[in-house]
Write a structure and sequence with these properties.
With 149 residues, this protein is α+β, with helices and mostly antiparallel strands. The chain contains six helices and six strands.
Length: 149
């Protein structure tokens, strides 16, 4: 089976199932007749632009994010709006709290905004730290982020 058919199967699977791990996805693909390893699925996830967010149950789910050339799109916008719980500044650092498991996806939204005053960001499971050039720029970026919530 081809790379394209395997990736289409992945998209079909993630539209129907919440998955805790890539191994869960490997198992379902193998049940459908695909010969895959976790490493192959990991590469497919990256190529497809999939991100893991908290699902409705205790499991996670993958969603596909299509990047625009110059920034973010509506899918990231929705993920950001649905996952952010709070945002505040501490000097030149913006601390963003999200629902459990969504910080990485929300951080990708921020990164794709291509904010010139942003020096970098890092996400954990439910917290994002964004470092800006100054405390003043942090306040401006925070205002911009809050407008997207």
């Amino acid at each position: 089976m081809t790379n394209k058919s395997r990736q289409q199967a992945i998209l079909d699977i993630i539209s129907m199932h919440e998955l805790d791990t890539q191994d869960d996805l490997v198992s379902i693909l193998q049940q459908r007749g695909f010969v895959v390893t976790q490493a192959t699925v990991s590469r497919d996830i990256k190529q497809l632009g999939l991100v893991k967010i908290a699902g409705k149950s205790k499991k996670y789910r993958y969603v596909q994010v299509n990047y625009k050339e110059n920034g973010y799109n509506a899918k990231y916008d929705n993920i950001f709006k649905e996952s952010v719980l709070s945002m505040q500044c501490a000097g030149n650092i913006i601390v963003i709290k999200t629902v459990t498991g969504a910080a990485n996806s929300a951080c990708a939204f921020i990164d794709n905004m291509l904010i010139s005053d942003m020096l970098g960001s890092i996400a954990g499971d439910d917290t994002i730290f964004c470092v800006t050039k100054s405390a003043e720029s942090a306040a401006e970026v925070l205002k911009m982020l809050k407008e997207n919530c």
